[in-house]
Amino acid sequence: MTSKYLPETIAYVSITNQSWHDGKLEGEVKAASYQWQFQWRFREGKLLVKPSLGRALIQEPLGRFLEHYDYKLEPGGDYHFILKANL
Known about the structure:
Radius of gyration: 13 Å
Strand content: 35-45%
Number of strands: 5
Number of helices: 1
């Protein structure tokens, strides 16, 4: 028997630093009891997430979120997206 509904968790994103000159965006993401710091080097297409605990759960969805909203994200801004998982 399969469920029609997947579990969901809201991930909250705060942007702390942005540098178009250096090609990077930095911030924090929280979901359930997890919390990570990230640095997105958008010119290189690299997303660094720390700490490693739970990183596999957030890295791909966070990367998709950042790529989709990149020019709309600003330092001091608070954003969120839905993870299709129960953390």
